[in-house]
Amino acid sequence: MMVKFRIAIVDDNETDLEIIKTIIQKNTLHQIVYEFRSGIDINNQLDQIKLLVDLVIVDCHMPLLNGFDTVRLMIAKKYTGKLLCVTNGFYKNYISFLKEVGVHGFCGKQEDLLVKALEVLAKGNNYFDESDYAVWSTDCLRRNLVERDNDSSISLLNSIEIKIIKGMAKGYNSIELSSKINLSKNTIDKYKCEIYRKTKTKNDKQLLSLSFIKGIVKAEDYYS
């Protein structure tokens, strides 16, 4: 027996949010009752709305609080409805992360996948789509190789410099990095100066933005 969900959508991208709304309204009988632009917003109001929402659709990629941490926090706050995470970009460990957390479904934002996910969830089953992963991963690998060929600054980074960048992405300062990589703070700072020079960045913010764009740091690095 299928149920009719009262849905909340959490997505920082206004265009994507409107697309998801249109897909649901066009293809299903489910009702959209709340819209949030960040994981922080829904968690701030969760106590007031959790009994009024049967399903929350959460974008994986949000700047203030990403989808993984959003659903973790919701579950910690005793939200017992269905949780469906959606994304425009896949990473190989997404599904394992989400299953471990306790999410009920994961799919891309394409219309056919989203409709299928809602159909399966409405029947009381979980839905984790992997159909696009092989194509996506092949395309990403090809793009990453091309980008690296065209960007000598990335290929110039050595293994220690990459370890430092990945540590910075987790929020470690030079003192914390020194203990984790077993180098002195002064040596870490010297490496960071060299990293800035090679990547032509001026500060941590620019460096980390570039690192995510160029694939030096991936989502799985953050959770490892």
Could you give the topology of this structure?
Blueprint: E1 6-10, H1 14-27, E2 31-36, H2 39-44, H3 46-49, E3 55-59, H4 67-76, E4 82-87, H5 94-101, E5 105-108, H6 111-122, E6 127-128, H7 133-150, H8 152-155, H9 159-169, H10 174-181, H11 185-199, H12 204-213, H13 219-223
Parallel strand pairs: 1-2, 1-3, 3-4, 4-5, 5-6
Helix pairs in contact: 9-11, 10-11
Describe the overall structure:
The structure is a single chain. This protein is α/β, with parallel strands linked by helices and 224 residues long. The chain folds into 2 domains: 6-132, Rossmann fold; 151-223, Arc Repressor Mutant, subunit A. Helices cover 56% and strands 12% of the residues. The chain has 13 helices and 6 strands. It has helices at 14-27, 39-44, 46-49, 67-76, 94-101, 111-122, 133-150, 152-155, 159-169, 174-181, 185-199, 204-213, 219-223, and strands at residues 6-10, 31-36, 55-59, 82-87, 105-108, 127-128. Strands 2-1-3-4-5-6 form a 6-stranded parallel sheet, with helices on both faces. α9 crosses α11 (185-199).
Summarize the structure.
With 224 residues, the chain is α/β, with parallel strands linked by helices.
Keyword list:
single chain, 224 residues, alpha/beta, Rossmann fold, Arc Repressor Mutant, subunit A, 56% helix, elongated
Number of domains: 2
Measured distance between first and last alpha carbons: 39 Å
| Helix proportion range | 55-70%
CATH topology of the largest domain: Rossmann fold
Q: Which value, in Å, is the CA radius of gyration?
A: 20 Å
User: Helix count?
Assistant: 13
Give the CATH H-level superfamily of the largest domain. Answer: Response regulator
Content of β-strand: 5-15%
Strand arrangement in the largest pleated sheet: 2-1-3-4-5-6
